[in-house]
Hints:
Layout: E1 3-6, E2 11-17, E3 25-28, E4 32-41, E5 45-48, E6 51-63, E7 68-70, E8 73-76, E9 80-83, E10 87-88, E11 95-97, E12 102-105
Parallel strand pairs: 1-3, 2-4, 3-5, 4-6, 5-7, 6-8, 6-9, 7-10, 8-11, 9-12
Amino acid sequence: MGTLKFSGEAKTFDGGIYNVTAGNTLDMSTEINLSKTMTGLVNGNLNWNSKILVAKTAVFQFTGSAGINWVDGFLEGGGILTNMTKLNMITSNTKYITTNLVAKSHC
């Protein structure tokens, strides 16, 4: 059991496979610049706690039982984010989408 926490300086996720097994956590607690398609099996906690930027296009296409936990933070960037994944709003913290970003959900 464990946690991988992204914090500090901004990170770039340029597509890729991100697996989170049951009992484990991937914690996105810093600015994340997204592009291309993020896939993987999420049976643990994939926590979104900060700013996510989409300048062009990005896709969340995770499978598994858990989905993405939008804990806190916001989405911006002027691009298009297509969500093919369960998105859990697990807290009452403020969450918002800014600028001219287009967010599409297909789940």
